[in-house]
Amino acid sequence: GQNIDQPTEMTATEGAIVQINCTYQTSGFNGLFWYQQHAGEAPTFLSYNVLDGLEEKGRFSSFLSRSKGYSYLLLKELQMKDSASYLCAVVDSNYQLIWGAGTKLIIKP
Amino acid sequence: DTAVSQTPKYLVTQMGNDKSIKCEQNLGHDTMYWYKQDSKKFLKIMFSYNNKELIINETVPNRFSPKSPDKAHLNLHINSLELGDSAVYFCASSQGVSGAYNEQFFGPGTRLTVL
Fold first, then answer.
1. How many other CB atoms are found less than 10 A from the CB of residue A7?
2. Confidence of residue B101 (pLDDT cuts 50, 70, 90)
């Protein structure tokens, strides 16, 4: 079966750095997305990785290792507004998007 | 301008009723989707339409039927509502299928409560 694993919840301090991990086992791979979802709102796109390595976009970076079936989202200089759920999603060989259950990130002052 | 819009935002109804949720996108995208997000916050794909053709139909009950009058609209009709249908339903759209760098843009969601 297809499976995406993320921690259910993480806590971090304002101004710090946090890394949210995602491991996946899917039938084929055509890319991995990270989305952010604030409580009561719609998911919004953060990043897309299809090649191995690190993609940096401001305070957020996303890393991919296809051989390990592993990705992480790195958030630097955390702000209170970063409190949200972070969803990992993988595009499988049929171009279907397989979603993880999301990681709820709590930022404390 | 709203990119992906859904109506209504909240829907409260009785078991056994039939209801519809409307979705419109003004991004000129080719593909639209319906997702169900339950209380555990897990996003589950229900349907997607590409150029008015159904290309994904997950194992959802046939009480749920998507209807796409044109490529900018994908409505969701639900017959004989059940308690377990209570969830937030998100509409989304993307350019092309979910392949190379086709991020999905989500609507604000419709919170359905079945009593």
1. 15
2. low
